[in-house]
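hey so u asked for the seq, here:
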Amino acid sequence: MVESPGAPRVTAAVRAIDGLIRVGMHGAELCLVAMMVLITLEVVCRSFLGFSLTIVDETCGYLVAALLFLGAAYSLRQEALLRVEFIIVALPRRLRHVVDLAYDIASLGFAIILLHQMARLAVSSHQRGMVAPTLMETPIWLPQVVLPVGAALIVLGLLAEIVRDIARISGRLPAAGESVAP
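ran it, structure tokens below
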């Protein structure tokens, strides 16, 4: 197949997006490790030292939200997010790619709305000086800022998927799990 003159730039952009998604995945992994360390410390402190760190519940709650939003784009890239597979796999290959494209475009619309709303939430919390009503009194925008970052990764991931979908429909990219014919 003949590639368009812009194909190398598109390929480079998709690779860059995949790299950003991997950074988000590593951030999610760090959140998980931090949660494990904090919970372990809390158990040790309560069981053997007779006191509580008192910040573990709140901090782990923030870390769970960060893990979810930072890891969602990676799940999208690995095709591990929810899809009605039993219907999609029954379709002819070309129609399946068209359905994938339609799904990704619709998802992109929702992801853009999510990004916009999460950004508004974090900015609003910052402007209003909101703090958590807890012992830590965490400025609430700090954990909220991860939400639009994760939503932006989802938007970028969906854009990359749309590019891949179009390439599959046009025959320039094999379907996932298929190899290129010699």
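Residues 126 and 141 are 5 Å apart (CA to CA). The chain has one domain: 7-169.
lmk if thats what u needed
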